[in-house]
Amino acid sequence: MSVSPLTRDEHSAEFFDAAARGVLLLRWSTECGGYLPPAAVICPCAPLAPLEWREASGLGEVVTWTVIPVRGTDAVPPTVVAYVELAEGPWITVRVRGIDPAKLRAGHPVRIGFETPEGGGETIPIALPPHPG
């Protein structure tokens, strides 16, 4: 399974610029004082309130995941995709790298890293083991 390149737009440009620098940004509701996922365009409690970009810690826990095997070959590792609840509260969907799928469990700690899809495209967040190495 390949990751399709994402296309930046006016709404996502700051997110992708930060990702290219290795920084995860979340949306912040100035009205409610809470974090929202990066794709949020309005605040659910105050739809007219402006949203800001704020740097996130990059720490989180796996909520659930799926393992997508590669058909016809054992030489290519399966793709693992997870919902990660970030320390700030929002959930994001990311690919998992460097963690044995057989050892994943709900609550498994992760840190957010970044990669650029093969063939180019925007740098995107991925889930990595909690400690480098």
Task: Report what the structure shows.
It is built from one helix and eight strands. The chain is mostly beta strands and 133 residues long. It has one domain. Helix content is 6%, strand content 36%. A hairpin with an 8-residue loop joins strand 7 and strand 8 (124-128). It has a five-stranded mixed β-barrel. The model has no long low-confidence stretch (mean pLDDT 91).
Architecture blueprint of SSEs:
Layout: H1 13-20, E1 25-29, E2 35-36, E3 51-55, E4 59-68, E5 79-86, E6 91-96, E7 109-115, E8 124-128
Parallel strand pairs: 6-8
Antiparallel strand pairs: 1-2, 1-3, 4-5, 4-7, 5-6, 7-8
Short description:
Helices cover about 5% and strands about 35% of the residues.
